[in-house]
Design brief:
Blueprint (H helix, E strand, L loop, with lengths): L5 H10 L1 E7 L5 E7 L30 E6 L4 E6 L3 E6 L2 E4 L1
Antiparallel strand pairs: 1-2, 1-5, 2-3, 3-4, 5-6
């Protein structure tokens, strides 16, 4: 899918669970059952109070060609490249093909 926008995919995954079919780097096809809905995401550990000696790591640059989503089958985050997406299906209906 050439014109798939990262923001569009993220908005969809924040509302729905989806099956994203894409081609992996090794050429194999994979179906990722995933979401970004808050109720599925693991709870974050509490952030410790700063002590004054803490060093904040630099922020990571956002890769506009990659989406990270929570894999509902294995309960871990996985990512996929937008240019490798074949279809995105929600409740048996293709949203993007």
């Amino acid at each position: 899918m050439k014109d798939l926008k990262r923001e569009t995919v993220i908005e969809l995954l924040q509302k729905e669970c989806a099956a994203v079919t894409f081609t992996k780097k090794d050429g194999t096809e994979r179906v990722l059952n995933c979401t970004l809905q808050a109720e599925y995401l693991p709870m974050k550990a509490p952030v410790p109070e700063p002590t004054g000696h803490d060093v904040t790591p630099p922020a990571r640059a956002v890769n506009e060609h990659v989406v990270a989503a929570f894999d509902t089958d294995i309960n871990e985050f996985r990512s996929f490249r937008l240019d490798s997406v074949i279809t995105i299906t929600v409740n048996g209906v293709e949203q993007f093909a």
